[in-house]
Amino acid sequence: MYDPSSPMLRSGLSDGGLPSPDAKSRFAEDRMLAATIWCEIAPGEVITEADAMERFGLSRAAARAGLMRLGFDGWASPKARMGWEVLPITGQLIGDVLSARRIVEPGLAHVRLTDAALTEMEQIHDILKALSRGGDDAAVSAVRLHVDRIDGLLLGAINPFTARHLRKLWHHSARITHFLEGDSGTLFRRDDVSDLVGAVLQRDAAGIERARLALIDAQERYFLRQLLKNDAPLMPGSGLAARNNHENAATNRRPQ
């Protein structure tokens, strides 16, 4: 599932087309991130350097670099004498990601794409129309690939600091989606693409914002439906009480 040509990942080549000196470390970092997003490394799983070396064919130095990068970016946390624990997926995490996207994502409404990017988007739109007639998993995967490219075009046209933050939120959303899809046989389908592309081509800022917020709403509904099918038991402290008590304690500490 790892695509080294993905625009979401960094190139390991120098300007001359040769591998850069840190190419192995960068490949390891991107490979470990891809494995986390695609849930090859399960949420909550503890993974060691030896595990990473065996599973992903990395050297010890590369495995260490990949795991440390996951830790630096908040995808994993070190566990003494155990390894690295990958960030679990919780209801609070899902809610925080969706809330953050509702704040940041409307900024895409103000993108100004180049003529070349607009032409490419029109071509992708034509391809998506043809793919929309297929309802099998292969068609859904193909649609996702082209939709990711649309997102990449939009992301490349905004402030790089905002783009970096939004890219990470999208990575979180993708990981949550892959995890909840699992073996359920129910895949999440994006139905906003035509409205989004039409709004971008017409430079309709309000239309772009509506399309992006509609996607977030659709993902929220999908996440909720999948969670309601989950038969895992809720443990003490997993409800709202723990979070509410924490928030109340923080409020009580504020100076009056």
From TrEMBL:
Keywords: DNA-binding, Transcription, Transcription regulation
Source organism superkingdom: Bacteria
Segment forming the signal sequence: none
Record-linked InterPro entries: TF_FadR/GntR_C, WH_DNA-bd_sf
Molecular function per GO: DNA binding
Region (Disordered): 1-21
PANTHER family cross-referenced by the UniProt entry: TRANSCRIPTIONAL REGULATOR, GNTR FAMILY (PTHR43537), UXU OPERON TRANSCRIPTIONAL REGULATOR (PTHR43537:SF5)
Name of the protein in its database record: DNA-binding transcriptional regulator, GntR family
